[in-house]
Design brief:
The complex is a heterotrimer of chains A (about 120), B (about 240) and C (about 130). Chain A has about 120 residues and is mainly alpha-helical. Chain A is built from five helices and no strands. Chain A is elongated. In chain B, helix 2 runs parallel beside helix 6 and helix 6 packs across helix 9. Chain B starts with a strand and ends with a helix. Chain B has a five-stranded mixed β-sheet with strand order 2-1-5-3-4. Chain B is an alpha+beta fold. Chain B has nine helices and seven strands; from the N terminus they run E-E-H-E-E-E-E-E-H-H-H-H-H-H-H-H. Chain B folds into two domains: about 100 residues, Beta-grasp domain (Ubiquitin-like (UB roll)); about 130 residues, Orthogonal Bundle (Fumarate Reductase Iron-sulfur Protein, Chain B, domain 2), CATH 1.10.1060.10. In chain C, helix 1 packs antiparallel against helix 2 and helix 1 crosses helix 3. Chain C has two domains: about 60 residues, 3 helical TM bundles of succinate and fumarate reductases (Up-down Bundle); about 35 residues, no CATH class. The longest helix of chain C is centred in the first third of the chain and has 30 residues. Chain C is about 70% helix and about 5% strand. Classes of the chains: A mainly alpha (about 120), B alpha+beta (about 240), C mainly alpha (about 130). Chains in contact: A-B, A-C, B-C. Chains B and C meet through helix 3, helix 5, helix 8 and helix 9 of B and helix 1 of C. The complex binds iron/sulfur cluster (SF4) and FE2/S2 (inorganic) cluster (FES). The site of FE2/S2 (inorganic) cluster has 13 residues of chain B, from loops.
Chain lengths: ~120, ~240, ~130
């Protein structure tokens, strides 16, 4: 039997699953519901405030973690769910799925770093 | 006072049936009657051609696994009183049906053998050195996983095994972990080759149903997740020791 | 000559609808669909943020459309389902000991619920102060 390289993806999946379970609910509540519904006043989530948050290294780190890591959870699970539905995807599809997570993480990091410097 | 219950059984007689067919039996039952006893009643009184496997009648031999209303159960540990709406009994899922409720378990047995389910130690401790000591913590690392009766219910519960028969599967991986965790054993390196493979722990997507149906609370899902942790450590170590 | 003729039952694409436990498993995995989209929504918001006030406000404005509100409500519920299942399964992958006693599963599960509550409160405080 061949050694699987799954530990790499599993590690990212685990980190992403943890972030999605602990951080994502409040993030959705704020950005998707409370702010759009005006329950949190618009000034509290204004361009200036959000920009300042994203330009602090700690804020940038929090944003990166919340945006990027869940992508690894999701693409990992979606890839395996293909198999559950009887679709036996090859290496190309695997590269595509994890590629989305990778590209998303890099794009997010780039945007944040551009703001930091 | 015996009530009567309808029990539907999926019959398959390879000499005559092209595919399995349902057959209904009326079985008088009492509060204490198990499904296994109901099957015995059917065989003795209604239809002697019915085939099923059993031995101990007390949830220890692991012979009497079957699907009851779509859920893997031991016939001897399932009681008619718990099924007021009746029962649909079928051979254990994910295994080929040999005849009626009898499945062909040879793949399962091969998987069990493949994990080297015995203590491996080329240099056993000499008697003069005294006995092996195991603390409660040492023992707790494997005791639960040693309770398996090889009934195969967890294989019938596992969609990953159903979808891909090359997956080593819950019980075999739990037993593998049981020996890996035993501090009298020195065979971990050999067994890690299985854990590390796609067909090993990594074939599992943590559905968790195996642990739910296990009649002995072995919790194979936990053993497999701990196997993944072991395998991830092994992966990192191997990165620093290329060529091994 | 053998009289054997083992019969193989096919699983079919709808196997996960036939057993409640399996259905819940697919619902758990399905949360990935909306969580991934949410990550992309945030990523796009970050991109708009980098383009200036108007772009960012445009993104914010879009978020109050009914369709996006409905999406976020669904995503919140589905993500919380992910959290619940994640917390309940987490102890199985942990093997924590205090001396000769195993750390009870309930401690691990409860501390994760505690962390979820703590992180949520900190999040709200950060936006509101
Ligand atoms: S782990 Fe449990 S369900 Fe699986 S074969 Fe062993 S006793 Fe049966
Ligand atoms: S007859 Fe032995 S386990 Fe049921």
């Amino acid at each position: 039997m061949k050694r699987s390289n799954e530990p790499v993806f599993w590690g990212m999946f685990g980190a992403g699953g943890m972030v999605a379970a602990l951080f994502t609910p409040i993030a959705i509540l704020i950005t998707g519901l409370l702010v759009p519904l005006g329950i949190i006043p618009a000034e509290q989530f204004s361009y200036e405030r959000v920009l300042a948050f994203s330009q602090h290294w700690l804020g940038a780190a929090v944003i990166w973690v919340i945006v990027s890591l869940p992508l690894w959870l999701c693409m990992h699970r979606l890839y395996h769910t293909l198999h559950d539905f009887g679709i036996h995807a090859g290496n190309l599809v695997k590269a595509l799925f994890y590629g989305v997570a990778f590209a998303g993480s890099v794009a997010c990091a780039t945007l944040l770093l551009l703001g930091l410097i | 006072m015996a009530e009567v219950m309808k029990i539907e059984i999926l019959r398959y007689r390879p000499e005559t049936d092209k595919e399995p067919v349902w057959q209904t039996f009326d079985v008088p039952f009492t509060r204490e009657m198990s499904l296994l006893e109901a099957l015995a009643y059917i065989k003795d009184e209604l239809d002697p051609t019915l085939s099923y496997r059993w031995s101990c009648r007390m949830a220890i031999c692991g012979s009497c696994g079957m699907m009851v209303n779509g859920i893997p159960k031991l016939g001897c540990k399932t009681f008619l009183r718990d099924y007021p709406k009746g029962m649909k009994v079928e051979a254990l899922a994910n295994f080929p049906i040999e005849r009626d409720l009898v499945v062909d378990m040879s793949d399962f047995i091969e998987k069990l053998e493949s994990v080297k389910p015995y203590i491996i130690n080329d240099n056993p401790k000499s008697l003069d050195d005294g006995c092996h000591t195991q603390s409660p913590k040492d023992m707790a690392q494997y005791k639960q996983f040693s309770m398996c009766i090889n009934c195969g219910l967890c294989y019938a519960a596992c969609p990953q095994y159903g979808l891909d028969k090359s997956f080593t599967g819950p019980a075999a991986l739990a037993i593998l972990h049981r020996y890996n965790q035993d501090n009298r054993d020195a065979g971990k390196a050999e067994r890690m080759k299985i854990v590390n493979a796609e067909e090993g722990a990594w074939g599992c997507t943590f559905v968790g149903y195996c642990s739910q149906v296990c009649p002995k609370d072995v919790d194979p899902a936990a053993a497999i997740q701990l196997g993944k942790v072991d395998s991830a450590k092994d992966y990192v170590i191997a990165m620093f020791k290329p060529g091994e | 000559m053998t009289k054997r003729k083992p019969y193989e039952r096919k699983m079919g694409a709808t196997w996960w609808l036939k057993n409640a436990f399996h259905t819940k498993y697919i619902i758990r995995e399905g949360s990935s669909l909306v969580i991934a989209i949410y990550s992309m929504v945030l990523l796009f918001g970050l991109f708009r943020l980098s383009q200036g006030t108007d772009a960012f406000n445009g993104w914010l404005g879009a978020m109050s459309q009914p369709a996006w509100l409905a999406f976020h409500l669904l995503t919140l519920v589905w993500t919380l389902y992910h959290s619940i299942t994640w917390f309940s399964l987490a102890p199985k992958a942990a093997n924590l000991w205090l001396g000769q006693k195993r750390v009870p599963d309930s401690w691990i599960v409860n501390s994760m619920y505690g962390a979820l509550a703590g992180i949520s409160v900190v999040g709200l405080v950060l936006v509101l102060i």
